[in-house]
Amino acid sequence: MSGEYRWTLLWERYGVLLLLLALSVAFALKSSSFTSLANLRNLLGQTAAVAIAAAGMTLLITNGGFDLSIGSILSLVGVCLCSWIPEWGLGIALLLALLVGGSCGFFNGLLVTHLKLPTFIATLATMLLFRGIALLYSNGKDVNLFGLPAIKFFSSGEILQLPVPLFLLAGIYGLAYLVYRRLSLGLAIRAAGSNIQAAFSAGVSLTFVRLWVFTFLGLTTAVASLITTAQILVGNGKLGLGFELEVIAVTLLGGTALQGGRGNLSGTFWAALLLSVLKNGLNLFNVADYYQRLSLGLLLILALSIQRFFGQRGA
Amino acid sequence: MNDPVLEIKRMTKQFPGVLALNQVDFKVYAGEVHALVGENGAGKSTLLKILGGIFPADSGEIMLEGKPVIFNAPAESLSAGISIIFQELDLAPDLTIWESLFLGREKRNKYGFLDIAAMRRETRDVLKKISLTVSPDALVRELPLAVRQMVEIAKALARENRIILMDEPTAALNEQETKTLFERIRQLKSKGKAIVYISHRLKEIFQLADRVSVLRDGRLLETRRLSDWSETEIIRQMVGREMSVFFERQSGRTGATALVVDGLSRPGDFDNISFQLRAGEILGIAGLEGCGRREVLRAVFGLLDYAGGTVRLHGNLLAKNNPAAAIAAGMVFLSEDRKEEGILSIRSLSENTTLMMLKKLGGRFLSFLNPNKERRIFEDYRRELKIRAGGPQQKIQQLSGGNQQKVLMARLLAAQAKVLLLNEPTRGIDVGTKEEMYHLFHTLAARGLGILLVSSDLPELLALSDRLVVMHNGRLAGELADETMMEESVMQLATGMTR
């Protein structure tokens, strides 16, 4: 029994990494351009936005919540950035944009902790609300950033010959890991997700913790939006449709349990990378977009059912 | 003696329909083990939860070393120096042992990060003290139940609070572990800690306690030194309430054997349970909270898996985990949790009534329902059971608890079953409806139905049952019938005083 339990743990921890390696090797053998420097950079850029938001989502799901509104937050923050950079300059616009992202997350948290709305309903509502605001603020049109290339630093800039998104990724994941493993806050996040009653009677402030994780997710989503905006140099109210689902999918694929208590940050990162490798590889072979979505769906079913299969026999 | 460390004055707590605590006065001194005993529902858990800051009392005072205190949250009670080991385990399964021990009061280094090394070291020390050989890094979910219980105890010990309250701490422990726990409790006592020990097991109380208080129906009857109590006296105080049952059942004639349960076992819940139920008989299962009778009933019906043993209905073996098969074979079940497992709260009375007989109403899933027929069926039972309701279209959630229960009884009867498994059928309903229910059970038994009855209301169980089996700690402690069916003899078996 414990042997099988160990298999479950191994699969939970390294299963996604295994799939990632297998897929990468397969693509590299089939196409030399897969391992070209340009393509690897491209890969990183694609991964960064989803992976960064997924770090926040991992903490939130571990705490026993989840968030459907982050696609709308991504779009809203993008519109804000593109409108405010020409007016106030990059620095101030950046800070304000982060503030917008954080506030959106905080607002979600308030709905859940103070109005006691179920997470699903609260974030479904704000998904519509935030997107509505983004559309209103942009008049439903594209807000272009053509004349102002400074923001490109966040997508294609370099520090010490390493791409900037890499630093953002490392920073966010480092911070998330620190919280998760090294701070009391992280222990409280995991405890509340695992058994809310036990956390409450141990004196954990459930409200503070829930507000914090929602806000953190809002902030990471704002950073994701920054990278995306720097890539496409345009903001509009239709960006990020389905972003939230991709981020949730990646988080679950990485081994974080939907019922809370068990998060896996490195798993989330590998799963985000797996997702972009899959997309990227299929692009290289000119496979149509439909198949990409289809294969992501199959991947989710495959990975999670293997986990469930081992989990049920091991438990 | 000195002044009490903890004193409760005239504490009262009212729940809908129940006065859980009624003007309770209670004192605990440093360096003593104060045992608190009482039947199910006597108010022990309510008292504990108020002291733990889970919910407030309606009136009354808590005094800590002479100063009045109010606990609005568990954190406040903990930091005031009160640790509680609750009966339902209060652990997060995804945390390690050291994380569980330090949750809510983490040790940090000077940079504000968790001082993991220190916490693991301390955890190892505490575990050693209670002779528990598991790694501080083990996840709670991987631990067997008994070890989890010990971790719960370790959690309270690690806090080094001066008042420790324990609710049935030995429920999942074996003899050796219990001994270790008692040694620890004696050590804590000699260090001047105050310990409140709640248990159904009188044997343990006579080994451990300095003073014993008896709670009954929300009132604290008496506190005495252990040497001034005898076992029989404690038992008499626990049960000796006025009989609220006016109903005296005459044993009818019973028929052929209907239900045979043989050697039913489920590790951790119940072990080797065997009994038979005849047609026309009411068989009661008595026992204290957590003795496993609730689980036995659920297992017999197929709501809970079991490792060994068989259930036969009218001679035919019943499949495990298959309530549908049980219903088809003529056995139905009434849950003790009316709201969560009984009523379809926003559906109509007639829909609630016919839920178990849908197949009989019209084949499989792909057949049309017949609302008129459903209504007629409901109206029939409304007359028979005197259900007070507007009409068949009324939503069941609008009825009183007693009338909801009657609709659920109608549902069982509409399924044309031969054997009824009733779990707490009169919980939370008014006296008048109770009376009607008693007569109904009597009539049903006279009609030849077999009834297996679980109830926490001992006088009710005694008045209704033809025979009683008593469970203690997951096993059958004995069987009582006729003149041996007395409250005292039931309690002796249920508390494990005799074997």
**Oligomer kind:** heterodimer
CATH architecture of the largest domain in chain B: 3-Layer(aba) Sandwich
Q: Tell me the count of domains of chain B.
A: 2
Q: What is the CATH class of the largest domain in chain B?
A: Alpha Beta
Strands of the widest sheet of chain A, in order across it, are 1-4
Approximately what portion of the residues of chain A adopt beta-strand conformation?
A: under 5%
How many runs of DSSP E, i.e. beta strands of chain A?
4
- Describe the sheet with the most strands of chain A: 2 strands, antiparallel
CATH overall fold name of chain A = ABC transporter involved in vitamin B12 uptake, BtuC
What's the helix count of chain B? 18
Mean pLDDT of chain A: 87
Strand order of the largest sheet of chain B: 6-7-8-3-9-10
Class by alpha and beta content of chain B: alpha/beta
- Uncertain residue segments of chain A: none
Number of strands of chain B: 20
Number of helices of chain A: 13
Greatest interface (CB-CB under 8 A), with counts per chain: A-B, 25 and 26 residues
- What is the CATH top level name of chain A? Mainly Alpha
First-residue to last-residue Cα separation of chain B: 38 Å
